Amino acid sequence: MNRPIAANLEIRTTKDGDRIACRACGHPLAPAGDAWKRHAVLRELSMNGAGGKAYTGAQEALLRQFACPGCGVLLDSEMALPGEPFLDDIVRA
Ligand SMILES: [Zn+2]
Predict the structure, then answer these.
(1) Which residue, 14, 19, 65, 92, could crosslink 28 as a Cys pair with Cβ 3.0–4.6 Å?
(2) What pLDDT is recorded for position 93?
(3) Where are the domains of the chain?
(4) Ligand 1 mean position to 50 CA, how many Å?
């Protein structure tokens, strides 16, 4: 049984237990209850100049994008300063 937890993430019940997986292609990322972002493809972009003059905050602020390693669909994004830990959403089955 697949249970959606976000636009492009779901919990899939497999023979190895519940897994957080990509909804688009089914690629398993991590066991349910574990942090999944470290298993995604990370892209960090500077927020400096993003949206023209819309962003005027800290010059070093980053937009992090987390994509599926199986199909490339965007799974989540967050703003952070360099070196900050990921904002992990722990989802339990
Ligand atoms: Zn995928």
Answers:
(1) 19
(2) 59
(3) 2-80
(4) 27
